[in-house]
Design a protein that fits this description.
Strand order of the largest sheet: 1-3-2
Low-confidence stretches: 20-26
Oligomer: single chain
CATH architecture: Orthogonal Bundle
Length: about 140
């Protein structure tokens, strides 16, 4: 197939992009499927969002510092092993900060990092969406 003068091929096997036209801005957000998958992977898991929600505390207040046992009581359906695994993943990803106090018995505390705290408006919007969906389904079933 021939292309008109000035046209560039965009087929993915070509891998060519004209040098004069920059398609990536440094300040632009990456909205590619790969970037979305990477972001979703950070929060995947049955308990991660529940843990983060508990670490937000009350709306309008600073994020609390919670001991492991407090988180365990706040999320009664999670096993101790799973809670530890999910907290370690959140810590590894920079969302949760873990502080170990050298005492007997060991005192371990968890709190959100600045990056974790930045999830507050997103989680709040997700909860608003879930409430809207619930009201819509309730309204649809009545009418």
């Amino acid at each position: 197939m021939r292309y008109a003068a000035g046209m560039t091929r965009t087929h993915k096997t070509v891998g060519y992009s004209p040098k004069s036209k920059s398609t990536v801005s440094i300040d632009a957000r990456d909205c590619s499927p790969e970037a979305a998958a990477e972001a979703f992977e950070l929060l995947e898991g049955r308990w991660k969002l529940v843990i983060i929600h508990n670490l937000f505390g009350c709306e309008g207040s600073a994020s609390p510092i919670m001991r492991f046992s407090e988180l365990e009581r706040a999320i009664p359906n999670v096993s101790q092993k799973m809670l530890i695994q999910q907290l370690r993943c959140l810590e590894r990803d920079g969302i949760v900060q873990r502080t170990i106090h050298p005492q007997v018995p060991p005192k371990v505390e968890y709190q959100l990092t600045e990056i974790g705290e930045a999830l507050r408006p997103t989680l709040s919007a997700l909860l608003d969406w879930a409430d809207l969906r619930k009201r819509h389904i309730t309204h649809a079933s009545k009418g």
